[in-house]
Amino acid sequence: MTIWNPKYECMGDEEKRILQGIRLAETVSHVYENVPFYKKKMDSIGILPGDIKCIDNLKDLPFTYKTDLREHYPYGLFAVPMDDVVRIHASSGTTGKRTVVGYTREDIDVWAEVMARTISACGATKSDILQNAYGYGLFTGGLGVHYGAEKIGMSVIPISGGNTKRQIELMLDFGSTIISCTPSYALYLAEVIEEQKIDRSKIKLRAGIFGAEPWSENMRRDIEERLGVLAIDIYGLSEIIGPGVSQECPEKCGLHVNDDHFIPEIIDPDTEKVLDYGEQGEIVFTTVTKKALPLLRYRTRDISKLDNQPCACGRTSYRMEKVTGRTDDMLIIRGVNVFPTQIESVLLELGETAPHYQLIVSKMGSMDALEVQVEMTQALFSDEVKKIEDLERKLKFNIESTLAISAKVTLVEPKTIARSEGKAQRVIDNRNL
Ligand code: DLL
């Protein structure tokens, strides 16, 4: 299986730490000199660029929070003049004001490089035809994947998200071999392919690179079976670069972080103390080659762990565990913490419902109450009421016994839960209405 850039992806540990240290020191000088926010922050804790001599000094640097980007909206944390910025992307702003990110020409080259690594990791080569169904636009998914695929020399179909009928038509006519989209959209594509009774042998897809939202192992199994692909997880966030921060290889044992560009740490989200390899916490990234918007110790709010052992695939880059949720999405149901993907996993494990679900959270007095709505399959829908009630009870029992939370389970009619073309909305929170 191809490794796009063995020099960096298979680097010896000591050599990598030296490179990271050099790049970190350069980045710290760059932000100190060009971003007043960082100068002020570093001055206030008495750290000067000259104090950063090696990668072990990373822990002495201040954190950067999403609120810092919002407070300096739109360009206040940029470290280069706007003349050097060749691209601007922005987050959808669903959890507040948009966060705006910028790239120099050099940053775009780095992005294409890390995306070439990401796409190659699923076994793709220049002979592949990539159907890129991530949204093109302010979202980083579309263009991020696009540039990486072109760098490899693949034939890219820039179809963007949505228009499912056309996606399937082009997939058949153009012979797409790799698809990129969110995992929830991949499932929707599989559903429509099945409904249209398309002969699977006419579909040439062999791998999919799915990310931008959390998804469980059971969802991976479902996608792999129904679309007939190797399903690979890809992770990233706009603030750090977009997609291309880390990706799985076919070993599927964690996501390889492109750690010559983005240095990961795991911290306790409450105390901000750095945790050891293998310990679960919030993943934090420091960019060490970005020019337009370098960020020191950016708090992602995503939960993961790090593994520093080399992988069977030959890469030595540190691996982060598949992100199953963000601290913000964690539900606390009567004192028990639970992520939507954990519920997804229990639902799909049984495999007797459709894989479309939504969680409705509300307040009952001072307590949080959770309703899990999950779609019935067409066959179940035409079955007797008793069977449906039995399955509701079984799912409720499985959720209680696996996750120790009590939830109401409601089986809803097929096709009542909205399908997403991008990131799925899994939780409807009615607590603050
Ligand atoms: O979602 C970038 C991206 C595009 C990644 C395409 C992968 C593929 P944002 O819109 O800024 O950027 O959202 C970033 O999405 O902090 C995670 O909470 C979540 N996320 C992204 N990838 C994964 C993944 C893009 N593979 C936020 N698993 C991140 C779980 C993910 N969560």
Rounded mean pLDDT is 96
CATH topology description of the largest domain = Rossmann fold
Strand content: 15-25%
Instruction: Identify the overall geometry.
Output: globular
The largest sheet is: 9 strands, mixed
Our Rg estimate from Cα atoms comes to 22 Å
User: What CATH architecture of the largest domain do you see?
Assistant: 3-Layer(aba) Sandwich
Class from helix and strand fractions:
alpha/beta
- The portion of residues assigned to helices is 25-40%
Distance between the termini: 51 Å
Give me the count of strands. 20
- Regarding CATH, which class of the largest domain? Alpha Beta
Instruction: Quickly count the domains.
Output: 2
Bound molecules: 5'-O-[hydroxy(phenylacetyl)phosphoryl]adenosine
CATH-assigned homologous superfamily of the largest domain: ANL, N-terminal domain
Q: Point out poorly predicted stretches.
A: none
Number of helices: 12
Strand order of the largest sheet: 4-3-5-6-7-8-9-14-13
Describe the structure.
The protein has helices spanning 6-9, 13-34, 36-44, 66-71, 105-120, 140-152, 164-174, 183-195, 217-227, 340-350, 378-381, 385-403; strands at 87-90, 100-103, 129-132, 155-157, 178-181, 207-211, 230-237, 242-247, 255-257, 262-267, 281-287, 298-304, 306-307, 319-320, 331-333, 336-338, 357-364, 367-375, 408-412, 427-429. The protein is an alpha/beta fold and 433 residues long. It folds into two domains: 1-327, 3-Layer(aba) Sandwich (Rossmann fold); 331-429, GMP Synthetase, Chain A, domain 3. It has a nine-stranded mixed β-sheet, sandwiched between helices. It has a four-stranded mixed β-sheet with strand order 19-18-17-20. The mean pLDDT is 96. The site of 5'-O-[hydroxy(phenylacetyl)phosphoryl]adenosine (DLL) has 20 residues, from helix 6, strand 7, strand 8 and strand 12. 5'-O-[hydroxy(phenylacetyl)phosphoryl]adenosine (DLL) is lined by residues 91, 134, 140-141, 211-214, 233-238, 242-243, 300, 302, 323, 326.
